[in-house]
């Protein structure tokens, strides 16, 4: 994907968000009983966002300033995979406990984010050890030292 | 004298409390590693450690977070000198002369000088912070709500305008941050705003989720685009060659002093930051040098000035944070979040109401600055090797700590997913050259600014004249307008002057 295309899409999202904030702020009420209401400040942010996003879009369409380059599809996939793995952890943790879920997610994320030519057996072994070590360290730090009640699953951790 | 006594008490407390010493050492160690690792800067380091640190007692938590910040300033020089690869942005200038010195077989000498320059710069910055903090906080006690509001506007203007090539995107980032800060219950009327019916959003989005997501995860996503450096042999050095060489320190005394002073002054200015300070310090040292032609080929002054400057700047950055409650950079914005999360409101009253906390914390900075000299020298081989750590291992470890830490803040698993969302936003914004600092400042200062503006207008019966009737707030508001408008009318004015001369 071209960076300029992503830039345009993001500007459009901001333009839409700006309009949404402006309309919502208007509905919240700019003034109530003669004093600034809940919509007073958001409408400023909304208008600024709308006007600036429109300005950026015009600048982009006129070709005055456009970002060059492309976004590497491999990086996009890795970003999505890491984000997906973190979301998966949120659903997995109540079932398996935080320890097991974190370990699985860390191994997955470590594998996905490593450069393809460097995912040898040695790396996998180190990844498993690092993930297991981090989980143990976090359990000691958060559960024992700080006293955070962690989510535990059927295995008890 | 009273300041000195309070500081002495603070240093003694920090030096004798094992918990504080452990926090300083741990923070400094993490900071050194973060500084040495390319792709992760001090803001990312402090953001990643934030959810971990806030589980501890306030002084210990802040000592750890600040240790990460100033530790990163020390760590960046090691890889810059030994490998020619800057660990973070503030150590880029150190490569210019540090690496040539290493190639000339003087790596130990350059490393030693960088470490002592960092210490001296840090010490001068700390003295500046100690002296100015008390003065500014005393003065700031005169500030009422209108003055504080005007000061926040000036700070946001400076942060948004400085350090960016694209002001449209910078202001857009600020507006997005202001909006994110408004999500949740209205602070005055109490009604929900932009919550979309979600209970999770009623309390607003916790700042730590945004900071860790955008600066921690977002920076890590950016690092996916870079290749891990191929293993190259680091320049050789011995511990003995890193011992203090008084001759070098005396020879570079002017650069050390000037670099430290420039670093502190630039650090105090909101939006400028340590990287700008190193560039100015390097340029000034070169101008003042009797042998400017040596710069870029292994000049000792070229190592001393930027290293002194970036350490001094890190303490200068904290002046407005502690005295006015207004952060001047992304890292201090994350530190502000840390202060708020442990239940402390920075500002002039902090010195009156939490004096012991402030002076103990400042005491930890002095101890930390000294500890870092020994740690940097002892850990140099580890720091030089850290750059080659496989990306997958680093990601796995950091994400593990982050998910436990984020969960620990509110004991809410869904907060982790929200943090991941901000990671993607941080990556997209960085990729599209939207500066993240205005957004983070908008999130932190937005709610305070809104409260200030609305309270002032309620008190004045809706009369906006209240902002320009007070001389301090009027001056600050005029300065804000000048800061925003100057980049546009400046070139126009200079163009007209040139035309008139012709």
- Beta-strand percentage range of chain A: under 5%
Radius of gyration of chain B: 23 Å
Give, in spatial order, the strands making up the sheet with the most strands of chain B. Answer: 1-2
Provide the low-confidence segments of chain A as ranges: none
Rounded mean pLDDT of chain A is: 89
Number of strands of chain B: 2
Secondary structure class of chain A reads: mainly alpha
Q: In this structure, how is the largest beta sheet of chain B organized?
A: 2 strands, antiparallel
Oligomer: heterodimer
Order of helices and strands of chain B: HHHHHHHHEEHHHHHHHHHHHHH
Number of helices of chain B: 21
As a percent range, the share of strand residues of chain B is under 5%
Q: Give the low-confidence spans of chain B.
A: none
What would you call the structural class of chain B?
mainly alpha
Distance between the termini of chain A: 42 Å
Q: Your description of this structure?
A:
The complex is a heterodimer of chains A (157) and B (502). Chain A has helices at 3-28, 40-61, 73-96, 98-113, 121-146; strands at 31-32, 35-36. With 157 residues, chain A is mainly α. In chain A, a hairpin with a 2-residue loop joins strand 1 (31-32) and strand 2. The model of chain A has no long low-confidence stretch (mean pLDDT 89). Chain B is mainly α and 502 residues long. Chain B has one domain. Helix content of chain B is 75%, strand content 1%. Chain B has a two-stranded antiparallel ribbon. Chain B is globular. The mean pLDDT of chain B is 85. Classes of the chains: A mainly alpha (157), B mainly alpha (502).
